[in-house]
Amino acid sequence: MAKGKTTAFFCKECGYESVKWLGQCPGCREWNTFVEEPVVKAKSKGITGTILSGGRAKPSPVSEISIDEEDRILTDIGELDRVLGGGLVKGSLILVGGDPGIGKSTLLLQACRHLAATGRRVLYISGEESLKQIKLRANRLGEFSDNLLLLCETNLQRMEEAIKETLPEVVIVDSIQTIYNEDVESAPGSVSQVRESTNKLMQLAKGLTISVFIVGHVTKEGVVAGPRVLEHMVDTVLYFEGDRHASYRILRGVKNRFGSTNEIGVFEMREDGLCEVKNPSEFMLDGRPENASGSVVACSVEGTRPILVEIQALVSKTNFGMPRRTAAGTDYNRVNLLMAVLEKRLGYPLSDYDAYVNIAGGLKISEPALDLGIVIAIISSYRDQIIDEGTICFGEVGLSGEVRAVSNPEQRVSEAVKLGFKTCIMPQVSLENIKKPQGIKLIGIKNIKDLHR
Ligand code: TYD
Ligand code: MG
Questions:
Q1: φ and ψ of 52, to 5 deg
Q2: Which residues line ligand 1 (CB under 6 A)?
Q3: Distance from the CA of 270 to the center of ligand 1, in angstroms?
Q4: pTM
Q5: 210 Cα–ligand 2 center, Å
Q6: Were 102 and a residue from 16, 23, 80, 98 both cysteine, which residue would form a disulfide, CB within 3.0 to 4.6 Å?
Q7: Bridge-partner residues for 212, per DSSP?
């Protein structure tokens, strides 16, 4: 008799499902991420179109759908509001992912504090900390209004009852990996639990027009499913990153159905909680070395905001046949490519040299506009030539060494002016299209060969 299969294997990184165990996940290419779990016969129906279309199961013309401008709630934490796309959308489901201990609970509790202070009812559900522990943390952050309700609960059904009873405007669920749904057999934190619970929360959010924040820990070991499993289900995905040893934290929008992605918010972790960093460029350029070769400032645009970063390169003669290359904060392959371009087009014998490239400050940026900065930093280090402190650059470098246009040149230049830079090296094409501001000398180049003029 054929036995119905009751378990399957799931990737705990991305949720890929397979009937047999696999060493490498075909979905996300991660190794050793498959765990065996019972297959769920979903009792919940998923979010039905009726919930999304507000109770009507009938197609409607776009022009007839009304939107209220007030559908956004401001959290009063400017950096968070911007990453959310201009405030919190009512009835949206937001996933906040990040390493344990990075400050997710702190950020959300602070957001709760502001929301409660403006008279909104907020429910903070924790499955990780006791009421006392939350209170201790809250004491460090300041006074809290009585509009903030706390609940320690891991059972999803009881959580649902509490939400329906109190009818808050905003709910925080900290964390999704501790939640237990009775309808699903597997342990809390497993792929199916995490998915089913999120589905349920999605129904609640859309059905009752409550904004729900879900905290998800990024995990490397164990069988706990990571937040990537949920990315496709939720409206907005934010990742909280940063070096745990450094004090600043970066909140990055990875997916947003209601705003632009790649938007970043910068915070600093202090004694009394997270503090917004209003001018990240200043923050990133703090402590720049003076008169050092291999250092240059480049301008990147993250989301809608320009950010200046220092690019450092160290090029030194290699002792082995195979030169070492590392890239911290930027794409390793991109650095290799740019070095090959430099070798071929400008004739630098870089295959005999080790090269280390670093974005100072710990920000991770993959924007091609940093190419020119990386190239200049490498040349500067190789020739041991100091780049003037007041110089900034941006531009994409192509395989034949051509310097290509990048988006938002005007915004980049004005950020440079704001921070007192005197010279800007940029793509010639971009230079022709922008208004020339006062107080900065713009140098347009067409090819990296022009750097030798
Ligand atoms: P937490 O929000 O608990 O992290 P997560 O929820 O992402 O796991 O943050 C914990 C860290 O933040 C902890 O190492 C202590 C630090 N912290 C401060 O430095 N200042 C503060 O005011 C608070 C509340 C926490
Ligand atoms: Mg926490």
A1: -65, -35
A2: 98, 100-106, 137, 140, 269, 271-273
A3: 9
A4: 0.82
A5: 21
A6: 98
A7: 93, 171
